[in-house]
Amino acid sequence: MTVSQPSTAARPRQSTNLSSGRKTKNAFMGFLIALGTICVVAPLILIFGFLLYKGVGALNLSFFTKTPAPEGEAGGGWANAITGSLMILGIATVIGVIIGVAGGLFLAEFPRHKLMRTIRSLSDILSGIPAIVMGLVVYALVVKPMGHFSALAGGIALGLLMIPIVVRTTEEVLKLVPLSVREAGLALGLPQWKVIMSVVLPAASSGIITGIILAVSRVAGEAAPLLFTAFGSNLINYYKPLQPASALPLEIYKGATSAFEENQRMAQAGALLLILLIFLASMLARFMNKPKQ
Amino acid sequence: MNDTLPRAQKYPRLNSKGDGVFRTIIVGLSLLIALTFILSIILLTVQSWPAIKAFGLGFLFTNVWNPPQNQFGAMSMVMGTLLTSFCALIISVPLAIASALYVAEYAPKWLANPVGYLIELLAAVPSVVYGLWALFMLKPLFQKIQLALYMGNPELTARCAELFNTGKTNLQCFFMPQVPTGLGFALAVTILTIMILPFTASVARDVIRLVPSDQREAMYALGATKWEVISRAILPYARAGIMGGIILALGRALGETLAVAMVIGNTPELLKSVWAPTATMASMIANEFGDAREGLHRSSVVSLGLILFFVSVVVNLLARSIIVRLTPKGM
After folding, report:
1. Record: contact B99-A122, CB cut-off 8 A
2. CA-to-CA distance for B258 and B264, rounded, in angstroms?
């Protein structure tokens, strides 16, 4: 007994007065964790600072109103890319929203349907398919039969990329709508489709719109699938969806890899514009989602 | 919730025809998702069929890319994709977990929210913008390092240049630059690391926040330090979710295209040095598809896409089975 006495008495002392090794280790790991966090956040600040410093000078009126100057010459603008981006994203949004919201509705409202699991898995898998592979698929699906590149093909490629994102958010938001809301609608004698369309969907609308904004901002920066679908064009073609069109990320890619300093400068300005728009969209989405929580 | 929802479905006949029509429309549109998947496989396979017929499985294990001679093998690009992705993953995972721990465990609230938001914004930055930044800001920096290595040891440089010319390398030369252009494997891994960080970080943060506070308090009650609580109570509990986030990031890294294409140098050769240019499957597709008008060339490029497609399907399934297997019971 006398042997064990000191050891039990010493234990509580040890836990209040930590051994210096444990203390140092704790402080050291805390330091590493803070350092790691700085490493993670630093690139964003560096990127944003770099683009502001380099790009803001070239973001003038002619950037928004003119088409590109001949290769390597000063002046000109990216009106073709801005209008092209708008058109391609418009087409993509129509496809992504119609199929995506329908898919989300299907997963949330018909959970006993025998295809439900399959559709959910496939949607999940599609969300992981690299964007460039989608570009190859749409090339074979649209560009090859049509015989030429088009904004429509680019919109379809981006729309297909949007679908899984919209499906996922729509499903999650719809599941947050309480069952009692549905039951109240059904108890009034409304058919199920009417309950879904005029009670459940409106209740979930802000969440669904948030998801759509996030999906659009995600694909707005995609250039890879546009390389062999929309292809790019120096003309303002926004009223001709069957013609090739340019887009901001596509022009950034071309400009950044160009040998001409003037094109590189435009690319930096374009990147600043694109990143600002995307940040704005994500802030809007965040703002829209806030009041609900 | 899933169990109670279908109650509404039990009485479809009581209601109008509208329900049937509505259901048909919804199911029909949802089937388009399945159709997209099936069409993708069919279209990619049909387009890459000439290459599959000509090279078979050997396509994966042959290191040759010679359009004029119509000889194609994807080994260097498969290796390029795997090496860049795994290196980026190895560097990014500790950083991502550190930032997740910081946001969830260390930071005061006024700091946790902005930091978390910044990490989310990092995920929203487009690939081309990362590529542009890497080209104009990181490339000159890497070039300086390479030049210093290149000039600093002329004898070794000469010896390695000879070795590189024969297509071989050794341990010493593996860390010497081939040509000090700045572009190459090291830059690609750096930019990939930065790009996939937020994916692991935000998933890890979410699952760390889900760890019940009982777990933490029990450890603290035993007299553990903060780090001991993190390493023995929190991380083991959250490991399934964190693994899921890592695999998600792996999926991103494998398919990442333009940022990598802009900085990797796009040379379909096996890696001879950490600084040397090489190529990934995705960067090769981006670079060659437009120029590849010749049948077998184009078909070989599409085969790379087919490989990427299947790899990403496998990675996705793997992620889900890992999450199921590693999730602690009762969660």
Report:
1. no
2. 10
| Residue-wise pLDDT tens digits, A165-181 | 999 999 999 999 999 99
Q: Pull the structure tokens for residue A211.
A: 């998801």
**Residue A226, both tokens:** 């546009």
Write down the ipTM of this complex: 0.89
pTM of the model: 0.90
* CB contact residues (below 8 A), chain B span 287-316, against chain A: 289-290, 302, 305, 308-309, 312-313, 315-316
Domain boundaries, chain A: 78-289
User: What is A78-289's CATH superfamily?
Assistant: MetI-like (1.10.3720.10)
Element (H, E) at B71: strand B71-72
Which span out of A164-168, A188-192, B319-323 was modeled with the highest average pLDDT? Answer: A164-168
DSSP output for A61-79: HHHHHSPBPSTT-S-B--H
Task: Give the SS3 label for residue B92.
Answer: helix
**Domains parsed from chain B with CATH numbers:** 54-326 (1.10.3720.10)
Q: Does B47 touch chain A (CB under 8 A)?
A: yes
| pLDDT tens digit sequence for B135-158 | 999 999 999 999 888 888 888 888
Q: Give the B window 187-246 contacts with A, CB below 8 Å.
A: 194, 197-198, 201, 222-223, 225-228, 230-231
